[in-house]
Amino acid sequence: MQEKIKAAFSSIHADPSLRFKTERAIEEKLCRLKKKSHRARRLAPVLACLVLCVLGIAGYISYSTPVAAISLDINPSIELEINRYDRVIAINGYNSDGASLAKEVPEIKNMKYTDAVQTILENERIVSCLNAGDILEITVSGSSEQTAKTMQECISAETTADPNYIYCSAGQKEIAAAHALGVSFGKYRLLLQLLETDPGLTMEDVQGLSMRELRKRLESSLSGEEASESNGENGGNGNGGQYGNGNGNYGNCSGSGAGTGSGGGNPYGNHTGKGNGYGNKS
Predict the structure, then answer these.
(1) Are the beta carbons of 214 and 195 closer than 8 angstroms?
(2) Looking at the structure, do residues 249 and 221 belong to the same domain, yes or no?
(3) Beta strands in 134-227 (DSSP E)
(4) Which of 97, 98, 199, 233 is the most buried (most CB within 10 A)?
(5) Which residue has the higher pLDDT, 27 or 199?
């Protein structure tokens, strides 16, 4: 390179000292460029490694961040955390049976969530509960209502779970409240339903009940409401033969004597109001 520079300057007529200084300046500039190029070549692998590390960390964070959850409750209560790639990334038990079940199915981690649910359904412990007449409830919570709905439909279509007992859960506040009580958010949904039907109960009264006990209490409470609403049809307490003064269009009927009268009330229960009532003959 130096010979080429000298050859290029040999044809230029100028003061020798000026030519010499110019040659030296060009050589020094070229030398600095070579050093920079060498450093850049040495830094390239380091930069490539840094880029790969950043991408790897970003990928790990993306994979390990839950965006949805599935609660499976029969008496074992277990929750699956799901990432954006529909893979199970964590298995959490919310009672002693649930903790035992989580240890029995470690293979479901990193499975697609529908495959994981089916694996749990085929677990000997769950099969035994189902054969005993218990009901497995599956509750889905997603980052959005649409996500949860899609997951609900996929579980219904791709597993043997009873579609009548697959639910979409509310938001993160309810899940946080459930976990604060030490229960799965699927069981928490049932607890709230029971408290709604029986305002006399408190969360402390029922949070320790098993899923079977909760369902029995809920069914009993609901059947009590239905009985109250339909307590005797087309009758009213009244004095008279076939017709008499009666309380309400619907109620328990009794009466004696002949005559027609008027009575009334709320359509359900023994209440007083206007309306024709029907009584039993005596």
Answers:
(1) no
(2) no
(3) 137-142, 166-168
(4) 98
(5) 199
- Report the amino acid identity of residue 133: G
Mean pLDDT for the chain overall: 77
Output the pLDDT for position 44. Answer: 72
Residues 73 and 54 in one domain: no
Phi-psi group of 161: left, alpha or beta (phi > 0 → left; psi -120 to 50 → alpha; rest → beta): beta
Please check whether residues 197 and 106 belong to one and the same domain. Answer: yes
Same domain for 220 and 105: yes
User: How far is residue 265's CA from residue 103's CA, in Å, rounded to a whole number?
Assistant: 60
Q: Which residue has the tokens 């946080």?
A: 176
| Cβ atoms 268, 226 nearer than 8 A | no
The residue behind tokens 């005596």 is 282
Tell me: do 156 and 236 sit in the same domain.
Answer: no
Residue 137 burial (C-beta neighbours within 10 Å; 0-12, 13-18, 19+): buried
Range of the domain at 20: 2-62
